[in-house]
Design goal:
This protein is an alpha/beta fold. Helices cover 42% and strands 12% of the residues. The strands form 3 sheets. A 10-stranded mixed β-sheet has the order 1-2-3-4-5-6-7-8-12-13.
Length: 477
């Protein structure tokens, strides 16, 4: 029976592939395409399609329907300008995902995919990941209220992911899920380079999970905003998160990888002798002068009469040999370019080649200096007390730890890290609704530091925070 179901499902997919290969979905009428493809795949209860035009008010609201409904938000009146797709409160199976994959990949303007309580599984999440990779402009994915047994949420933020904004709230993510997410953020050998915002609020990450997330923040230099509110994180997990923000000692594995990168960098910046500009004699190695073919050419041009001084030239050749040697000599003379002109043209061509190569090399060096994308080669790294000290993650600008179990003990670590941060660093740190009095000295000092850093302080004056630790006006309270 199981084999029959698998065979039937495979036949449907093959049929869908054959039809869509011949007639790819048109972006002009998503509603019609979605309905027709669902019929083709044998979907019994075809979700309805609701289309609305984007407005400032509607874009902040999530409508809920008792029946399966695919909600599309348009950028303008053109039905091909779908910028957001929402699925809320109904189960999305593999068959519907096959249809969605065809539809979504044809929407060139799609920017956000929102799936709330969609009954996702680890298998369907893999399908979604593959679909997301086909959408050229999709940068935001919201998966909330989807409990995955294997907690494979990290698939969305792998090293090759182009997503910049991912929300995974209320998914019961525990230690294992946090470990996988931490590895996706960064390891010694790889790191996500595009993700800017990650929302992990209302999960069950705990202290152990927070330590894994902190490990992922050590060498990640893309993430700007991280929310870990309401995750049962205590002082131990919070202390690890705080330590990453300030100077920390590299591990043995990180030091070994740093040495490899330094050696590799030295090898890549070494300039081959043939690419060195001869005019910059002070920049080239001494061995270049003796081994350069151009130097040998210069030596011969400086002494053009050297061969005339050779006594063998005055000796008279045998009568039979004179005619034989004269012909090739004359032919060689006719084909030969004057030595002075040859030197000039060769020098000109070589200088052009050298200058082009030199421009590329200098440009590459400049990019290596400007782009400090490799944290293990951070210029702020220092050696002290037998340890290699990294200046810390100063890329992260916002961290939300509201609604956890922090006490004044972990606040001390946050204060120390904030004081140790140089340029950059956190601009916003939310610590409300934790297990410490709001008037304790350490918390007040942290608030004072953050108020001086916050660039939006004046704009947010008179604002409070909602239950998620996000800014909220007094009128909305």
């Amino acid at each position: 029976m199981k084999k029959r179901v698998e065979k039937s499902s495979k036949e449907k997919v093959d049929k869908l592939d054959s039809v869509t290969d011949e007639e790819p979905p048109k972006t002009a009428d998503v509603e019609l395409d979605f309905t027709e493809l669902c019929k083709l795949m044998g979907v019994k209860e075809i979700p309805s399609v609701k289309i609305k035009q984007s407005t400032s008010l509607e874009s902040q609201m999530t409508t809920w329907s008792s029946k399966p409904c695919l909600q599309l938000e348009l950028e303008n009146e053109d039905h091909g300008s779908v910028k957001e797709v929402k699925i809320t409160g109904w189960r999305v199976d593999e068959v519907v995902l096959q249809v969605l994959s065809r539809i979504l990949s044809s929407l060139s303007n799609l920017q956000c995919l929102y799936m709330w309580h969609a009954g996702l599984t680890d298998s369907t999440l893999t399908s979604i990941r593959n679909t997301v990779s086909l959408c050229s402009n999709l940068r935001k994915v919201v998966l909330e209220g989807n409990l995955l047994p294997e907690q494979s949420y990290h698939l969305l933020i792998g090293e090759d992911s182009m997503l910049t904004d991912v929300s995974l709230r209320n998914n019961h993510i525990g230690e294992e899920g946090a470990r996988l997410i931490g590895l996706a953020l960064s390891t010694v050998h790889s790191a996500n380079k595009n993700l800017l915002s990650l929302n992990l609020a209302f999960n069950s990450i705990g202290d152990a999970g927070a330590i894994h997330i902190a490990q992922g923040l050590r060498l990640n230099r893309s993430l700007l905003c991280l929310s870990l509110s309401y995750n049962q994180i205590g002082d131990n997990g919070a202390a690890h998160l705080a330590e990453v923000l300030g100077p920390f000692a590299l591990t043995h594995e990180e030091i070994v990888e740093r040495r490899k990168l330094l050696i590799k960098g030295e090898e890549s910046t070494m300039v081959q002798p043939s690419l060195v500009n001869l005019a910059d004699s002070h920049e080239r190695p001494l061995s270049v002068r003796s081994s350069s073919s151009l130097d040998r050419l210069n030596k011969t041009t400086k002494n053009p009469t050297k061969k005339k001084d050779n006594p063998k030239k005055d000796e008279k050749p045998a009568p039979g040999q004179a005619a034989k040697k004269e012909e090739p000599k004359m032919a060689k003379k006719d084909n030969k370019v004057p030595r002075s002109q040859a030197g000039k043209s060769a020098g000109k061509d070589n200088n052009l080649l050298v200058s082009e190569q030199e421009v590329r090399i200098r440009q590459k060096r400049k990019e290596n200096v400007v782009e400090t994308v490799i944290p293990l080669l951070d210029p702020g790294i220092v050696h002290t007390g037998g340890k290699v000290i990294h200046p810390g993650n100063t890329c992260l600008t916002s961290m939300n730890l509201s609604g956890n179990k922090l006490t004044e003990q972990s606040l001390e670590v946050f204060l120390s890290s904030l004081e140790g941060q140089g340029e950059g660093g956190l601009l916003r740190l939310s610590l409300n609704r934790n297990h410490f009095p709001s008037d304790c000295d350490t918390f007040l000092k942290i608030q004072e530091i953050m108020s001086l850093r916050d660039p939006l302080k004046n704009k947010r004056s008179g604002q409070m925070e909602d239950e998620h630790g996000e800014p909220k006006t007094a009128n909305d309270a």
